Amino acid sequence: MTEVTERTHSSGATAGTAEPIIRCVGLDKWYGSVHALKNVDVSFNKGEVIGLVGDNGAGKSTLIKILSGAHAPDAGEIFVEGKRVHLRTTRDAMDLGIETIYQYTAMVPDMSIARNIFIGREPVSFRIGPVGLLDRRQMARESMEALRQVDLHLRSPDTPVVELSGGERQGVAIARAMYFRSKVMILDEPTNHLSLKETQKVLDFVAGLRDMGITSVFISHNLHHVYPISDRIVVMARGEKIADLPKADTTIEALSDLII
């Protein structure tokens, strides 16, 4: 179970503004002799799209693994909606409304859309001890409603995920996170290897999340994808945060110079 403790911290939101939905203070992470994160302070606000950019080895993946509960920091603190938390497992993060969608989304290709949306959280029509009968009608009905919420119209909840395009798979993953009331969605290279049409669809999904007040952290190597959709850009290099800028205050060319 997630351990949550109340705490006030001087480096919180600016006076007169809302508390960030996630605030990280002094995060450090070592992998053997590699210092992957170095005293990183970063915050994400409600309903904001944050572009997280940097070259390979910049620390982006380490940061999101910590926020997703997959890895623990060696030092530093994480606050979710103003409360200090300890994310020991991915379930801890999910229980707090933090969902991570990886480049190669964790889905079972031969299972249906409905089963993938509810995987690990399946509703049952009745239960005898530890054994329950899946409520397939509820799964079918509610999975299609979840897809409609992200404007994804697929023919059947029984369609195997293996038959979907890359963009459609990302849409199903986003619909799954929204169905379970995620507050923060971390998208790791969500447009990688997608066609132009599918990329635009994923960007539209992210814009829709903003409209619903869901925070998105968009990790990408492609500035031409992340820049148009972001409200703010965080740049990392060699395990450090080297820039944190409103999009209006920078350009793709300036960001490229920072990364290089």
Key attributes of the depicted protein:
single chain; 260 residues; alpha/beta; six-stranded mixed beta sheet; five-stranded antiparallel beta sheet; 13 strands; 30% helix; globular; disordered N terminus
Structural features, described:
The protein has 260 residues and is α/β, with parallel strands linked by helices. It has a domain at 107-125 and 133-182. The chain has 8 helices and 13 strands. The chain has helices at residues 60-67, 90-95, 113-118, 136-149, 166-179, 196-211, 223-229, 252-259, and strands at 3-6, 22-31, 34-44, 49-53, 75-80, 83-86, 98-101, 124-128, 131-134, 184-188, 215-219, 232-237, 240-246. The strands form 3 sheets. It has a 6-stranded mixed sheet, with helices on both faces. A 5-stranded antiparallel sheet has the order 1-6-5-2-3, covered by helices on one side. Strand 5 and strand 6 (83-86) form a beta hairpin. Helix 4 packs across helix 5 and helix 5 (166-179) runs parallel beside helix 6. It starts with a strand and ends with a helix. Mean pLDDT is 86; it is low at 1-16.
